[in-house]
Amino acid sequence: MPESLDVLKQALSGADGFVELRYHAKASRSVEVEKGRVERTQARHRKGVAVRVLDRGGWGLASTGTLEPRDIKKAIAQAQTAARASAACKRSAVADLPKVELAQGCFDQPGLEELSGRPLEEKISVVAKLEEHMRSASPAIQSASCGYSEIFEEKSIVTSDGAAATFRLVRPELRLSAVASKKGELATGAESVGVTGGWECLFRNGSGEYFAEKAAKTATDLLGAANPEGGRSTVILAPSIVGLLVHEAIGHTVEADFVQAGSVAAGKLGQRVASELVTLCDSGRSEYYAGAGGSIPVDDEGVVAGKTTIIREGILESYLHNRESAAHFGVAPTGNARAWEYSDQPLIRMRNTYMEPGTSSLEEMIAGTEDGYLLEGPRNGQADATGEFMFAVQEARRIRNGKLAELVKGVTISGIAFDVLSTVDAVSNSFLWDLGSGYCGKGQPAKVDAGGPYVRCRVLLGGEQ
């Protein structure tokens, strides 16, 4: 067991009431290469202990940048004072926290030794070669960039009601972008991958050269591509877009704090919100295969981070909870309390959000589509508490008479998430985690992942004029 767990236990002894201690050490490194030059390298290291106290129905938060027991005890006293002040100002007291399985023991995740054993110089060399590989892929490529980052984390969580857990993990990430030009027209191709695991895990679904060639090919192929016909259309969404949809337009609406604020999911438990082909989950584990980018064994309240089924065969079954919201709704917490820095308050956040695979093959889905589009690669997008979304798509392939046809560009899709999921009529038997790079924002960042199978549904399709 690491020293941090023993120190937290020592500091907690003799404390009154409910006290939660969380030690968090985080080391990150990143490098970016563009146009053959190393444009940026960065290294950061921070660590400390967060203290949360629940007293008289109010929360108090304090932190210290040391692992000294006396400093932690001072922070406990400060948090207790803050909790009592908070309780005096609250309209309603926080209920007693529900009983739940609290984690005990060490839960180190794979990949730590493998990734830490690779010299930084080797990683920089790989990034430089991949950037050069994109630039040399075609005369049409005008510029390229490649970035690599990694985050090593250690956490220990101890609570006065029984949690005593510690774990370490690492999250590497690779991002590639190529810009192609022809007769004044520009087109961009981008690929990214991020995992919880080591170097080999990062390249589980393809080599660095594979992703570099794919980014360059997308950029050159999009040159001269036409814009789509607008209107309501049948589409087959790739796992990356399915992941973006279930994360942004569904996942946030079922986070219990947003539900309490009046999201579209409020009051819909037990109701049909999607096709019976749709089962949607959020898990701290990497389901189906290892390496999902949002994996955590234990959340920041010491709750085991298991799997939660949000929608089962089209019926809304559960929200995502921390211990406080679970008490409010009278259910068990789901292990979704997460904090980005040691000094941050844990918030209700997703982990790995996904749609479960079905029984169709992608080939069958294409062959069964008379008129539509195959959509690959989300670019960006937005969604709100009503479930309304709009996403840009990197690459769209026309489907005519059950066969793939011409490439189109500048595609956007929009709709109301529950309405779109109600139109799902085919789900593939394949599965891919495909949103492990980047960050989810909700007051503070969080590493998450999302994905699923290929899904056929109907959306409102738009494009550049």
In short:
The protein has 465 residues and is an alpha+beta fold. Helices cover 23% and strands 39% of the residues.
Walkthrough of the structure:
This protein is an alpha+beta fold and 465 residues long. The chain has 2 domains: 3-222, PmbA/TldD superfamily (PmbA/TldD fold), CATH 3.30.2290; 231-463, no CATH class. The chain contains 11 helices and 24 strands. The strands form 5 sheets. Strands 1, 2, 3, 4, 5, 6 and 7 form a 7-stranded mixed β-sheet that branches. It has a 6-stranded mixed β-sheet with strand order 11-10-9-14-23-20. Strands 8-15-16-18-24 form a 5-stranded mixed β-barrel. Helix 1 (3-12) crosses helix 2 (69-89). It is globular. It starts with a helix and ends with a strand.
Key terms:
465 residues; alpha+beta; 7-stranded mixed beta sheet; 11 helices; globular
Helix-strand blueprint:
Blueprint: H1 3-12, E1 18-34, E2 37-55, E3 58-64, H2 69-89, E4 104-106, H3 112-116, H4 120-135, E5 141-159, E6 164-182, E7 185-194, H5 199-202, H6 208-222, E8 231-237, H7 239-251, H8 256-260, E9 280-283, E10 307-312, E11 315-316, H9 323-329, E12 337-338, E13 347-348, E14 352-355, H10 362-367, E15 371-383, E16 388-400, E17 403-408, E18 411-416, H11 417-421, E19 426-427, E20 432-433, E21 440-441, E22 445-446, E23 449-452, E24 455-463
Parallel strand pairs: 4-6, 8-15, 14-23
Antiparallel strand pairs: 1-2, 1-5, 2-3, 5-6, 6-7, 8-24, 9-10, 9-14, 10-11, 12-13, 15-16, 16-17, 16-18, 18-24, 19-24, 20-23, 21-22
Helix pairs in contact: 1-2, 4-6
